[in-house]
Each structure stands twice: as structure tokens, then as C-alpha cells.
UniProtKB/TrEMBL annotation:
Biological function: Catalyzes an early step in the biosynthesis of tetrapyrroles. Binds two molecules of 5-aminolevulinate per subunit, each at a distinct site, and catalyzes their condensation to form porphobilinogen.
Binding site for Mg(2+): E232
Pfam families: ALAD
Taxon lineage: Bacteria, Bacillati, Bacillota, Bacilli, Bacillales
Record's protein name: Delta-aminolevulinic acid dehydratase
Family indicated by similarity: Belongs to the ALAD family.
Known partners and oligomeric status: Homooctamer.
GO (cellular component) term, any one: cytosol
Source organism: Marininema halotolerans
Cofactor: Zn(2+)
């Protein structure tokens, strides 16, 4: 008989499988997204995202208690403002919803690492991520507003700035703005590689940011491209990005891997709203085992090369990981 390899030797029982395991998901890898709204007494489920809620600030504390108790080190805040206008001025208002949420979170939970998403689409009446002039998104004028937004978030106490707007030069502009305002120690997590994806649908319901005209394809990337992702990432690293993000995660695991191999900065995978909702819907139907599927997906992102995972599953996953240890 021709000789062959006995791979099953290393799979014989739980102990050896644990010893041979190459990648691990841990609650320390998670960034948990939260949506904050004005008002009082609001904890309102987002219809297309089961178990994800809008929180008014008075409801936020209990939620943060849970996040901290589960050992999740970090949150990212998305604001849903009451008023929108053409240039997204609520994005940088001192008493904007995100600025207030950051202050509250840092005051009550000084050790919780608070990130701020720096973008304009939730705040503009046209729903685009930048300033619109003559029917087009004006790159450099958008940068001015984004810098103001990032500085206002850092001033409120944000530990990290996470710009997702996909304007060219946003990392350089925001870095310069933060440095000038004395925030040279606040890192930038750049959504360097953000695709024009249909997986953002439920998020856009959540924050009411569907573009009122056109789409985001003049600034977000074409899903068919991978070499373009490397160029985007290279320029963001050169401009001073401390951490890179790939978004979405599941359909772009190859991009996570390529960035991880090419660049020496930490990589974050954004497991986006549509990915979350697909799993939830199938689980509600009883078609998949939610726990196992979620842990498998998150492990896949780690294996692909992500150090951090931004995921709406974070609380559930942290709970399951904890149970597995007990
Ligand atoms: C833009 C932004 C988007 C998401 C996070 N930040 C959406 C978009 O480009 O429309 C999507 C996240 C998700 O789907 O979970 N500010």
C-alpha cells in the first residue's frame, strides 16, 4: 500500500485538538458597536437587527455595565442625531449625541476603551459621507468637516478615532488636526478598505443614512478589486494610520489576509450589519446553530489575519466563550 499521512492522529480527542489549535477568539478581540439617540427612556430594537438597539443616554449605562462585565474592552459609538443638515453640523457639535455619549461612557467607565466613528452620513440630510457641491461629493471640503468632527470627538474624550468616510487624505488631515489640538496620543483606526457593499443595508435603516441621491460608489471601493485595497491601505499607513480596518468581513477574508501579510499594523475586521442579520434570520428560523456559526465566523476572521473584530455579536460571543471556559 502506498504510504500516507495520518492527520487524524492530531485530532483524536479534545485535549489534543485544543493543543493543536492555531487561532483563538477572545472577548479581548471585540469592539462592540452601539447606537445612541437623543431622548429619554429609549431602548428600541432596530427591526432589521434583532437584539441591537437604539439607546438614549439614560439607558446606556446599564448596557455598558453588561459590556464591561463580559470582558469586552472596547465600544464604538454611532450617533443618530435629531436634526440633519447639508453639512452634517451635528457631527461636530459640542453637545452632539456622540460627544455626550463619549463623555458619559468615559466618566462612568474610565477603563472602557471608547472609539468614535468619524463620518458624516448619519448627520447629513442627503445621506452622503461628505459635503455635496454641484451634485458631487467634494473631497477636500469634506476633509475640513471631518477634521472638526474628529477633534470634537477627541475633546469629548474618545480614546480612538475611527474614520469611515472614504475621502482621500482623511488620515493625513485628521492626524494633523488631532496633533494641532494636542491629541497626538489619540490613535487613528482607518476604515482604509471599505467596499461599496450591500451588506450595510440594516445599518442604514438603523441610522437612516441611505443616500438621497446616487450611491457611495464614487468613494467606497468596488467589491471586484483587491489590488486597489492594497493601494488604499498603503496610503493610509503612509499618512499615519495606526490600525487598518477591512469592511465588510465575510466576503472579504482574502483582503484581510493580504493586508495582514503586507502591512505591519494591526488589522480589524468589521463584521457588518448585513452579516449579522443574515445569521440572526437563519437562527430565528432554526436553520443554523447560532452559537456555533457565530464562533466559526469570528474564528475565520482571526484566521484570515484580523487582530480585532468589530461585531454586533460581541456580547453573545463573549458570553459563549465564557461558558465554554467554565
Ligand atoms: C458610514 C458607515 C457605514 C457603516 C458603518 N459606518 C455604512 C455606510 O457606508 O453606509 C456600516 C456598518 C454596518 O453595516 O454594520 N458611516
Amino acid at each position: 500500500m502506498q504510504s500516507f499521512q495520518r492527520h487524524r492522529r492530531l485530532r483524536q480527542n479534545g485535549s489534543i485538538r485544543r493543543m493543536m489549535r492555531e487561532h483563538h477568539v477572545s472577548s479581548a478581540d471585540f469592539i462592540y458597536p452601539l447606537f445612541v439617540v437623543e431622548g429619554e427612556g429609549i431602548k428600541k430594537e432596530i427591526p432589521s437587527m434583532p437584539q441591537v438597539y437604539h439607546y438614549s443616554l439614560d439607558q446606556l449605562e446599564a448596557e455598558l455595565d453588561e459590556v464591561v462585565a463580559l470582558g469586552i474592552p472596547s465600544i464604538i459609538l454611532f450617533g443618530v442625531p435629531e436634526e440633519k443638515d447639508a453639512c452634517g453640523s451635528e457631527a461636530y457639535a459640542e453637545d452632539g449625541i456622540v460627544q455626550k455619549a463619549i463623555r458619559l461612557a468615559k466618566e462612568r467607565f474610565p477603563d472602557l476603551y471608547v472609539m468614535a466613528d468619524t463620518c458624516l452620513c448619519q448627520y447629513t440630510d442627503h445621506g452622503h459621507c461628505g459635503v455635496v457641491e454641484n451634485g458631487a461629493i467634494h473631497n477636500d471640503h469634506s476633509l475640513d468637516v471631518l477634521v472638526k468632527t474628529a477633534v470634537s470627538q477627541a475633546t469629548a474624550g474618545a480614546d480612538m478615532i475611527a474614520p469611515s468616510n472614504m475621502m482621500d487624505g482623511f488620515v493625513a488631515a485628521i492626524r494633523a488636526g488631532l496633533d494641532e489640538a494636542g491629541f497626538e496620543n489619540v490613535p487613528i483606526l482607518s476604515y482604509a478598505v471599505k467596499y461599496a457593499s450591500s451588506f450595510y443595508g440594516p445599518f442604514r435603516d438603523a441610522v437612516d443614512s441611505t443616500p438621497q441621491f446616487g450611491d457611495r460608489r464614487t468613494y467606497q471601493m468596488d467589491p471586484a478589486n483587491s489590488r486597489e485595497a492594497l493601494r488604499e491601505a498603503a496610503s493610509d499607513v503612509a499618512e499615519g494610520a495606526d490600525v487598518l480596518m477591512v469592511k465588510p468581513g465575510l466576503a472579504y477574508m482574502d483582503i484581510i489576509r493580504q493586508l495582514h501579510d503586507r502591512f505591519d499594523v494591526p488589522i480589524t475586521a468589521y463584521n457588518v450589519s448585513g452579516e449579522y442579520s443574515m445569521v440572526k434570520a437563519a437562527a430565528q428560523q432554526g436553520w443554523i446553530n447560532e452559537r456555533n456559526v457565530v464562533l466559526e465566523l469570528l474564528t475565520g476572521m482571526k484566521r484570515a489575519g484580523a487582530e480585532l473584530i468589530l461585531t454586533y455579536h460581541a456580547k453573545d460571543a463573549a458570553r459563549w466563550l465564557k461558558e465554554a471556559k467554565e
